[in-house]
Amino acid sequence: MSRRVLVVGAGIAGLATARALGSLGIAADVVERRADRPASGFGLNLPGNAVRALSRLGVDRPLTEAGVPVVRREYRSASGRLLFGVDEAAFWTGIAPSVCVRHGVVLDALAQGIEVRRGVACGRVTVEDHGVRVGLSDGSEEVYDFLVGADGVHSAVRSGALPGAPVSSLMTTGCWRFVTADPGVDCWTAWTGHGVTLLLIPVAPGEVYGYAASNRAAAAVDEPGWLGRAFAAFPAPAVKAVDQVLEGDPTPYYSRVEEVRMPTWHRGRMVVIGDAAHATGPVWAQGAAMALEDALVLADLLARRDDWSTVGAEWEDSRRTRVAHVQAATDRMSRLAGLPGWVSHSVAPLAGPRAYRATYGPLRTDPLAG
């Protein structure tokens, strides 16, 4: 019996879902409200559990070839003092290497062989006893056996059928992202102090991905000059990176940092996954990882179950504990970031490595093993 799945959204979560389903013999229609394919985008920090998921989807090789391995993390003060370091390569040994790569590289790899109907948005969603009726912006209305809302923080699928809405991150209200010439960093490096943080990660030969934000007590503003003012007294590599960005083209990109916390991620034969279900502040770089794992677990359940009416509840039960762990770890680090600098820096040498192990340790386990 042929059954029909609709995936709404052609970002990482949606493409991964379609790819995972296809590998298991289940065809999916994919619609995306944006008419154009996205540009190369900024950097994407992929810890070992994310790269393991991409390997399962058969697309890890292009990413490791185009990106840069993350072998070490360094957390430094605004003056440049090393607070603590982490041997990331050693930690993820036996799972997969951590990698930083352009966002577009990941999308292109996942999209290979996937047909996407672009410029088509999801409208009305009606959950019925034996399927989901969906109205699309091209005027069509169809009934699918299963609906996957993978359409991001401001999900149309979620807003039409489930309780939940995005809220500002506990850590910060907004952030700046950019890619620029490498100012002289040789590993994942974050500087914190004076209520702000700047992260630089090598993303390609001669280039770094940058992420800049403030804590909630000193909000970043949507005006590029904020970057120059916020990091003027930081170490030379940080200042150089910011200066290059402010003088160059393209300009840095500002966005709000929002999270989604919901009491349920499913209704009948409909689920929301990835950021649509549980967007979390980028403290531990788990947005893409959780979306990829969501896709793999969901596809596995749909392939193994004859009765799809129970899959939504089973999938949520399988994923809830793991996602809640990431959310709780994010909240703890967000509160730490809001402390006065002298307090957070004094505890960082002990608390930092411990938090890293406590956060990522459970994520070494296989999400498909449960």
Task: Describe the protein's architecture and organization.
- The protein has a domain at 5-69 and 95-168 and 258-340: FAD/NAD(P)-binding domain, CATH 3.50.50.
- The protein is 36% helix and 26% strand.
- It contains 12 helices and 21 strands.
- A 7-stranded mixed β-sheet has the order 6-5-15-16-17-14-18, with helices on both faces. A 6-stranded mixed β-sheet has the order 8-2-1-12-21-20.
- β20 and β21 form a beta hairpin.
CATH class category of the domain at 5-69 and 95-168 and 258-340: Alpha Beta
Structural class from helices and strands? Answer: alpha+beta
CATH topology of the domain at 5-69 and 95-168 and 258-340: FAD/NAD(P)-binding domain
Mean pLDDT: 93
Q: List the strand order in the largest sheet.
A: 6-5-15-16-17-14-18
Q: What would CATH call the architecture of the domain at 5-69 and 95-168 and 258-340?
A: 3-Layer(bba) Sandwich
Features of the shown structure:
7-stranded mixed beta sheet, 6-stranded mixed beta sheet, single chain, alpha+beta, globular, 12 helices, 370 residues, FAD/NAD(P)-binding domain
Secondary structure layout plus pairing:
Blueprint: E1 5-8, H1 12-23, E2 28-32, E3 43-46, H2 48-56, H3 60-66, E4 68-69, E5 73-77, E6 82-86, H4 88-91, E7 99-102, H5 103-111, E8 116-118, E9 122-128, E10 131-136, E11 141-144, E12 146-149, H6 156-161, E13 167-168, E14 174-181, E15 188-193, E16 196-204, E17 207-214, H7 225-230, H8 236-247, E18 253-256, E19 258-259, E20 266-267, E21 270-272, H9 275-278, H10 287-304, H11 311-337, H12 341-360
